[in-house]
Automatic annotation (TrEMBL):
Name of the protein in question: Ribosome-binding factor A
Amino acid sequence: MADIENAIEDVVRKRFAGVNIVRVDVEEGEDHDGDRVFFVNVVFDADIKDLDASRLSSITRHLRTRLFDMGEDRFPYTRFVSKADFEGAAA
């Protein structure tokens, strides 16, 4: 699982190189259909306008390509949350 976590984090950090990514958390789980998936939470310290919409909309494609190259077919569900919102939710 560490290789998958590292690969996912690498893709996220490269795609959002100009954004301060605080952390990338990857959890294994099941979606509502019972399929095995990855839940990817990306915590960033920036204004939402600093996240390029085209990069947000294409991140799944880039993650899937990297995962397929590793022999992994689980779907990555991504969620981007600001550091302020993340810390507020943790309180």
